[in-house]
Specification:
Length: 72
């Protein structure tokens, strides 16, 4: 179960796939993942983890609530 907090990019992708997203696909400045009509930009890899604030924004855009995220 992922906690709501800093997360590695590869783990974010793994959990988004578990929630039905496909990808990541290349395009533009960021890779993206797709689920139905939702297209979600995935943060670029950096030296550190994806922070709590950015994770919150990504989940909001993906229409994933915190309870669903923590139940994975």
């Amino acid at each position: 179960m992922p906690q709501f907090g800093p997360i590695k990019r590869k783990d974010l992708i793994k959990y988004l796939r578990a929630l039905g997203f496909q990808g990541p696909y290349s395009g533009g400045k960021h890779q993206f993942m797709v689920k139905g009509e939702i297209t979600l930009s995935v943060p670029n890899p950096h030296k550190g983890d994806i922070g709590r604030e950015l994770l919150s924004r990504v989940l909001r855009l993906a229409k994933i609530d915190r309870d669903t995220w923590e139940r994975l």
